[in-house]
Amino acid sequence: MRDRGSEGRNSATIVLGGEAGQGIQTIEFILARVLKRSGYHIFSTKEYMSRIRGGTNTITIRVSDRPVAALAHRVDLLVPLHRSVLEHVGDRMREDTLILGDAGVLDAGPRTVHAPLSEIAREAGGKIYENTAAVGILAGALDADRQVLADYVREYFARKKPEVIEHNEAAALAGHAWGLALRGEGKVPFSIPRNPEVRGNLLISGAEAVGLGAIAGGCNFVSSYPMSPSTAVLTFLAAHDESFGIVAEQAEDEIAAVNMAVGAWYSGARAMATTSGGGFALMEEGISLAGMLETPLVIHLAQRPGPATGLPTRTEQGDLELALYAGHGEFPRVVYAPGSTRECFLLTARAFDVADRCQVPVFILTDQYTMDTYYDIPGLDLEAVPFRKHIVKSPADYLRYRITENGISPRAVPGFGDGLVTADSDEHDEAGHITEDMGVRVAMVDKRLRKAASLDAEALGPVFAGPEDYSILLAGWGSTHHVISEALELSGRTDTACLHFPQVYPFPSRARRYLEQAQKVVVVENNATGQFARLLNLHGGREADELILRYDGLAFTVEELTEAIGALEGED
Amino acid sequence: MGRNRFDMGGIDIAWCPGCGNFNILETVKETLHAMGLAPEEVVLVSGIGQAAKTPHYLKTHFFNGLHGRALPVATAIKASNPALTVIAESGDGDMYGEGGNHFIHAIRRNPDITNIIHNNMVYGLTKGQASPTSRPGFVTPVQVHGVFEEPFNPLAVALAMNGTFVARAYSEDREQTASVIRRAIEHRGYALVDVLQPCVSFNRVNTRKWYRENSYYLDGSHDTGDRVEAFRVATAPGPFPLGVLYESGGRKTFEENLPAYAGDARPLYQREPDRQRLAALIATRT
Questions:
Q1: pLDDT on residue B137
Q2: Do A415 and A474 belong to one domain?
Q3: Which of A27, A32, A70, A545 could link A483 by a cystine bridge, Cβ 3.0 to 4.6 Å?
Q4: pLDDT digits (tens, 9 = 90+) for A206-218
Q5: CA distances from A483 to A397, A556, B102 (A)
Q6: How far B240 CA sits from the closest chain A CA (Å)?
Q7: What is the C-alpha separation between A14 and A62, in angstroms, rounded?
Q8: Which of B45, B50, B80, B161 to mutate to test the interface with A (most CBs of A within 10 A)?
Q9: Strands A221-224 and A422-424, how do they pair?
């Protein structure tokens, strides 16, 4: 078992903590890139309070000689910028955890080393350079490349005045020298081999991956109302509105946002709304509208703990059933649950294609943890997401809701062709006009529901890992993918495999054989009631034997899952 | 002038005989036809209610969506294809009640759309409850002691939001209404036309006779470029002013403000993602 003991380890977990506004994000941003460019695999995520200033926020960075993509509990190196951090991360500390901090913040202790942050900053030009000094100290302690550090600090501050760039570089390099010396004294309890192949890897957060996937899918309209943790996707697309021709509109409320998205699709745009819990609840009638109008629609729902305002900046997988059943009436839909950066990208791009082709609402279900997490990946495959258009030029006798065998009526848009494009939220005939003819009603319901067959046929299968002759199967969906697979590996169990579902609805029929083989199915979910376990029972025909749940607002850690998996009773 | 291009022919119309909606429908059709527009160039967007059924009775593209949500839809349709002539047409309950927030924010955005509101001061489809514009004292099965709330004043609200075209018409004066609606469609930017109309089934107070006695036309002396004067006229006690209260051409439209059209005039349906640029963007994330 690797990564669990403290001797000779070739991976480490660093935690940066401080009050909101103290700049831990800047430290993390620079440090993560310097470490990765030096040749370390890295993983980074954050947990933070719903406030602008004060409170206690932390960022966890894992550094390793092999790919890491899940949250670790233990802390090997803690950098508290505020006293409150020590208590906040108390249960994550170990006997050999190294605590690095300014004498002004930390009392002396056996595990504490006073880092001369303020002194280095003062010499470099002033207190403002303390955070850069911290980056340098950590880079040195982790044996990051000195030149890489100098180059990246210059790149990061490139738009500042020349003397500001100089001072930052000086602070970083002085910190690096101090960190290296600390290392030389044997006070840093880990040593991680560098891998030159990692240097060119990408660092893309879940939020960015969803945004990039949207662009790849042809998204050219986003209408949303800011709400944590979904806002990052809106800001990403807004930042690229000019270069990619995207209409990015902050709507007055989520009701306007979803209605704009439906109107934009009707008019020929490829539109998305990005939202979270309560905002999505407001969109429900609009989801039903898309179902009735057979307008494509892409909804990115970044989950956070509810009910109501809940824990606004925390994570949960609590809105699966909300997405499954959102909107009155009966109509087909698709729900994706990406479990990695790559899946965030691929599934978001795919969402636009499936929505457009099958004229249904498609959901991308992520969560705060996914939005705020990144780790290095070799690349994103654009070839895997071909762009296709699905609209037709309308003939003069065009019927928007023509009854077809597969239920999909050729979709035209106003202004392209000689026909008229209609859309009615009432039940309607083939021409799109309001009707109360019960025969037409039944024909239209059947037509809409027939689209489900196409969606079933192309449902994405689950991702399997582990021994072929397993008797215990761990099932999960969305953001738990990597933490389950790493924990399973660390558990050393040979009787257990894991199954990740990137698509939860329509339920992929290919998953059934995996479920049938298992003598015990254990569902792992970031919620209190096992929503996916219910879906598995309803659509997969298999009741879960055990549930591993977490619902305190934080993501699963590798250690807790390793322990839980290790404790499972065998079936042989 | 031959047959109106927007005429549907023999159709079953769900309105009560004598409803003010008929005149508004005919006036809109005549205006669109007279302006030389083709049905393929026009999108009519509505919400829910009796007035919201209008799109089913004239030949154009249409989007008959949810209650109160016509304006976000119309704004997005125009933003996705600025070449289209977009009209959001619905009733007072739909636009001022259920959709009140969208009304305010559509005016702020200033999309180049025309907003026609059938204002009969009562809910028709749900059978006679008060609307946001019902007058104090109006008794209904719900407001059994009479309405006491201040009636919504769409003209004053639009002027307060610096709406670029603010007008009111009366359904029974087809010629005057046609002239106002034409100016509204020709206006570049958001244009509000609040059309007073009788409801013969549920509003026995605000009748044709009542409207004649309680409204007046602004004459040539009214300066449509004077926003303060327009606000005075809109808020003055007494009879309702009819005609164009205010018109201003200075503000950019919503579509004109969108960077998506800065270097590319094509409607969004003609576009494809720039994959080379996307690959380059991805490559920066090192």
A1: 97
A2: no
A3: A70
A4: 999 999 999 999 9
A5: 55, 7, 43
A6: 30
A7: 6
A8: B80
A9: unpaired
CB contact under 8 A, A252 and B102: yes
Q: How far apart are CA A438 and CA A440, in angstroms?
A: 5
Whether residues A31 and A121 fall in one domain: yes
pLDDT band of A572, cuts 50, 70, 90: low
Please report, rounded to a whole number, the percentage of residues in chain A having pLDDT higher than 70: 98
Q: Per the structure, how many domains does chain B have?
A: 1
The pair of three-digit structure tokens given for residue B105, joined into one six-digit string: 């924010």
Name which of A536, A200, A506, A529 is nearest A358 in CA terms: A506
- Domain that residue A414 falls in: 391-458
**H/E element, B45:** strand B42-46
The DSSP line for A380-419 is --GGGS-----B-PBPTT--TT---TTSPPPB--TTSBSS
- Chain B within 8 Å of A217 (Cβ-Cβ)? yes
B41 contacts in chain A (CB < 8 Å) = 415
Residue A4 domain-assigned (yes or no): no
For chain B, the average pLDDT equals: 97
User: Cβ B79–A379 below 8 Å, yes or no?
Assistant: no
| Average pLDDT in chain A | 95
Last residue of a domain, one of A436, A458, A480: A458
Query: Could you give the CA distance from residue A326 to residue A287 in angstroms, rounded to a whole number?
Result: 7
Give the span between the Cα atoms of A254 and A276, in whole angstroms: 10
Q: Provide, as residue numbers in chain B, all residues whose Cβ is less than 8 Å from the Cβ of A266.
A: 63, 73, 77
Q: Are A171 and A133 in contact (CB under 8 A)?
A: yes
Please tell me the distance in Å from A550's CA to the nearest CA on chain B: 32
Structure tokens at B62: 């249409």
Q: Residue B59: name the closest of B4, B13, B115, B17 by CA.
A: B4
> What contacts B40, CB < 8 A, 6 or more positions away?
A414, A415, A417, A418, A419, A420, B61
Are the Cβ atoms of B273 and A425 closer than 8 angstroms? Answer: no
Residue A245 sits at the chain B interface (C-beta within 8 Å): yes
User: Are residues A403 and A356 part of one domain?
Assistant: no
Residue A44, chain B, CB below 8 Å: the answer is: no
B50 CA: distance to closest CA in chain A (Å) = 13
Give the pair of three-digit tokens for residue A454.
Answer: 């196409």
User: Residues A364, A338: contact at Cβ < 8 Å?
Assistant: yes
Identify whether B15 is part of a domain. Answer: no
> How far apart, in whole angstroms, are the C-alpha atoms of residue A467 and residue A470?
6
CB-nearest partner of B273 from A33, A215, A267 = A215
Q: Is residue A571 part of a domain?
A: no
Domain holding A294: CATH number?
3.40.50.970
Residue with tokens 């009773």: A569
Does residue A248 share a domain with residue A326?
A: yes
Residue B129 is part of a domain; what is its CATH number? Answer: 3.40.50.970
Contact list, A296 vs chain B (CB under 8 Å): none
Strand B61-64, strand A247-250: pairing: unpaired
Which residues in chain A have their CB less than 8 angstroms from residue B272's CB?
A: 218, 387, 389
Query: Has residue A524 got a pLDDT over 80?
Result: yes
Cα–Cα dist A156/A149, whole Å: 10
Pairing of strands A496-501, A463-465: antiparallel
Where among A440, A458, A476 does a domain terminate? A458
pLDDT in tens, A100-143: 998 888 888 888 999 999 999 999 999 999 999 999 999 999 99
Are B41 and A415 within 8 A, CB to CB?
yes
Return d(Cα A413, Cα A451) in angstroms, integer.
Answer: 20
* CB-based contact B50:B124 (threshold 8 Å): yes
Kindly give, in sequence order, each residue whose CB lies less than 8 Å from that of residue B86, ignoring residues fewer than 6 positions away: B42, B43, B45, B74, B77, B78, B111, B112, B113, B114
Q: Is residue A1 part of a domain?
A: no
Which residue of A218, A240, A263 is in closest CB contact with B63?
Answer: A263
